[in-house]
Structures are given as C-alpha cells and as structure tokens.
Specification:
Elements lengths: L19 H11 L5 E6 L8 E5 L8 E10 L5 E9 L2 E9 L8 E4 L9 E2 L6 H19 L2
Antiparallel strand pairs: 1-2, 2-3, 3-4, 4-5, 5-6, 6-7
Length: 147
C-alpha cells in the first residue's frame, strides 16, 4: 500500500461484515477532534477502515506521521492499529478483539513492532469505552515522546 500503510488486519474478520454504521458514528465523533488533521473513511487502499491521521503538532519533529486505523465488525470484533512513522523507523501497536489461533479473543500486539503472537488482555465491552481507552493510551504515548 502507499504511504507505508500495511494491511495488518487481514486475519481478523473471519468473514464477518464490516460495521459501516459504527465506523460512520466514530467518524462523526472524531471529525471535530483537534487531535486529527485528517479522517479518511473507507479509503480506496483500505475500504474496510476509518483512517485517522494525527495532527503533527502533537509530536516531536522526529515523528514524521502518525495515524490510527479503525476496523469494526458487525459482531463487535475490532482491530485498532496505531502507527507512527519515525525518521529512523516505525512504531506499531494494535488492540484486537477477534478469534485467533495465536491469542485469546481480546488481545494486544504491543509496540514497538506489534508482533504476533500478542498479549492476552481484556477490553471493555462497550465500543465507546474501547475507543476512549485506545485514545487515552495513544495520548500517554504522545506525551512520553516529548520527554
């Protein structure tokens, strides 16, 4: 894919349809959020996602670009992938809920490489709480980058 985008969620759907209505609601919630410079709903390179590009002012100069890719399925499964492009590499972290041969249904693939297998965890049941948790964890990461 272009611009460093990778399809890291190809194994999560298990044939379950994308919850486009949920992605639209998330888009509406984030559209006025100053954290994001751009929201790309269902881009051609990833029609199953909402891609949220972070405002560069939130990052030190060594971070070239950061984004959050959100995929949500009609059965409540999801994958939220945070990606930073650095001067000397990248940082990736994913929060997932989906059937998996490598982890429990709820798991994370922690940074810096979001390696598989990940770590089993428990995510909130309500999608709003999941989104809030992820945005808060990313905010903590952003703050730590300035230290």
């Amino acid at each position: 894919m272009s611009d460093g985008y990778r399809d890291d969620t190809s194994d999560v759907s298990s044939g379950v349809p994308i919850d486009s209505d949920r992605l639209d609601v998330i888009y509406d919630r984030l559209a006025t959020d100053d954290r994001f410079a751009q929201l790309q709903p269902h881009p051609a390179f990833a029609p199953d996602r909402l891609v949220c590009v972070y405002n560069h002012r939130l990052y030190p100069e060594r971070i070239h670009r950061a984004r959050l890719e959100i995929v949500w399925f009609e059965n409540g499964d999801f994958s939220l992938h945070y990606h930073e492009r650095h001067r000397d590499g990248a940082f990736d972290h994913r929060w997932d809920r989906h059937p998996s041969s490598h982890n429990a249904r709820d798991h994370i693939h922690p940074g810096p490489e979001a390696a598989t297998p990940g770590e089993d965890t428990h995510h909130p049941s309500d999608w709003r709480d999941v989104l809030s948790m992820v945005l808060t964890e990313i905010e903590h990461r952003q703050r730590a980058l300035w230290n």
